[in-house]
Amino acid sequence: MAVQIETLEKLERRITLTVPAQEISAEIEARLKKLSRTVRADGFRPGKVPLSVVAQRYGASVQYEVMNDKIGAAFEQAANEAKVRVAGMPRITPKSDAPEGSVSFDATFEVYPEVKLGDLAAAEVERVRCEVDDAAIDRTIGILRKQRRSFAQRPAAEGAAESDRVTIDFEGKIDGEAFAGGKAEGFAFIIGEGQMLEQFDKAVRGMQVGQSKTFPLQFPADYGSKDVAGKEADFLVTMKKIEAQHLPEVNEAFVKALGIASGDTEALRADVRRNLEREVKFRILGRNKAAALDALVERAELEVPKSLVAAEVDRMTAAAREDLKQRGVKDAEQAPIPADLFEAQAQRRVRLGLVVTELVRQQSLQAKPEQLQAHIEELSQSYEKPAEVMRWYLSDRKRMAEVEAVVVESNVMQYVMNHAKVVDKALAFAELMEAQA
Questions:
Q1: Cα separation of 231 and 220, whole Å?
Q2: Average pLDDT over residues 315-338
Q3: Nearest to 347 by CA among 321, 310, 320
């Protein structure tokens, strides 16, 4: 008999599922009998527990399992017969008007939408490029020097200056009242590196050890703590210690410490250039890929299944809780995470996934074996033992699936670039790095 599907609205559908009550009863009894062979109960030998005792103890849970299995199987069969592509999990509700000798349920669900791809010829896509020049290499070597810097205490008569590490006591008040996070003792930070608000940074410059100072500070309207955002506080700061920064010289010892056996500075610069070119390539690829995908999604027409968005929100929330747990946050599982925090991002992810899937299907943009191999080889080149890294990827299906997703996105990007109006833009190295950060 043909399955009757009721259209509710947009992507939502409903099917009535009917299962013979005798079939459910027989399956429950069979499972209870199987369970009785292994279950243990006081006063009975293993395998000799009466079925009535087993049913009393486990009957409800077994019935729940059987109902889930039977309704699930009935829904799968009905969906296959109706040839519908179900998006997400169905919502099952019991019906009171079931035929005699059976149980009935309504299965409400969503189907995958029709995706209409737009005309890419009308799209304008920005394609950026970036060259690694000597300034970029100098900048990177400067960062490497900072990573190996040392600090030495300044003479007492000298005031705090740019790049000094200062240790202070401070206390802030708003309208004469202390606030959370506004007080600390022995707090250290480096002047000019953005660790503190600019007004705070400027206030401690020139202070000497033992000196105290009071100054006003206006918190930005978008400050992380809502309790103080947009408000003005008065801070009392006492300078406890000032240490001047000392950067290592770029010499043979410094170069060797970075793993360049020859100690030659030109060899270091060549190594830095190779690494930067690899990094720039991936960042440029990511940025251009995002621009291409934006153009693709903006011109597509489709309804987005709410069930898929809800599932994506659940995944993102779970990932956020796991991240909190890894950071050592206490009771991360109970941390308040607003339900709508990831809504917009989840909506976009689902929409993007549906549009990309349709384009890949229509244009046969699936990842080819040689593309996967080439991508893994490129990834492995930044490691000391590339062959081991390649084996690490190739030995795991999940990791290979991630590689495949990246390659498919690159194929989609190239397709969009080939069919859209491309506007090339040159980016300075610093601009690319800062934008990505």
A1: 8
A2: 84
A3: 310
